[in-house]
Specification:
about 220 residues; alpha/beta; Rossmann fold; 6 helices; about 20% strand
């Protein structure tokens, strides 16, 4: 039987990507980490290996579908792509009145377009499992934008609409698409609801329960 692979896109530095890798890796899944910085990814692979979590890293530019496609081929050579978790995001501090199309286009690949690209290219692989899962990280800023996070808000609002529509489309295919919308800060090492290890539990529960389409995490 082929190994089950969980792909985490954009694990980042806040601790959520690491916590998700531990959660899904502890279930026996091999973890694939996808991002742009090879050194950062390799460092996380080593941290996970120290805790006996099987993981490997692949690089891609979310603004370049060809690199994403190549990364997915590498990933699926390792096993069956069972779960895709999209956690990539980019927050800038450009003010709404300063925003231009060029500025916005710099953040959209992380906050929205990359998620669509990854989903589109990964879906044929995930469908082969018969019961695959796509999970996406939402944010409170989608519904409550502020003047210092307008770009992230635009991207996350679009991602929210995309995921809910995708869930409806895939509902009869055996593949589940859902979102965990985080209504708090993520603070590695801080106990309680801000702890990324606790937040990762909401993703695990959604993957297991496969409903509702969106979970509001507080």
């Amino acid at each position: 039987m082929a190994e089950k692979v969980t792909l985490i896109v954009g694990p980042g530095h806040a601790g959520l990507g690491e916590a998700l890798a531990r959660r899904f890796g502890s279930q026996g899944n091999t973890i694939a980490l996808l991002g742009r910085n090879q050194a950062d990814l390799d460092s996380l692979v080593q941290v996970l290996a120290d805790d006996h979590i099987s993981a490997f890293a692949v690089t891609a530019n979310l603004a370049d579908p060809a690199t994403v496609s190549a990364a997915l081929r590498q990933i699926t050579d390792k096993g069956e792509l069972q779960t895709v978790i999209y956690t990539a995001t980019q927050r800038t501090k450009n003010k709404p009145a300063e925003l231009t199309a060029d500025i916005l286009n710099q953040s959209l690949p992380s906050n929205l377009i990359g998620a669509i690209t990854v989903t589109n290219l990964a879906l044929p692989y995930v469908k082969k499992t018969g019961n695959g899962v796509f999970l996406y990280t939402g944010s409170i800023v989608a519904a409550k934008p502020g003047p210092s996070d307008v770009e992230q808000s635009i991207g996350k609002a679009g991602l929210h609409s995309y995921v809910l529509a995708l869930n409806k489309e895939l509902s009869k295919s055996g593949v589940f698409a859902g979102m965990v919308t985080i209504n708090t800060y993520i603070r590695k090492g801080k106990p309680g609801h801000m702890d990324p290890n606790v937040i990762a539990g909401a993703f695990e529960n959604l993957a297991n329960d496969r409903q509702p389409a969106e979970v509001q995490y507080h």
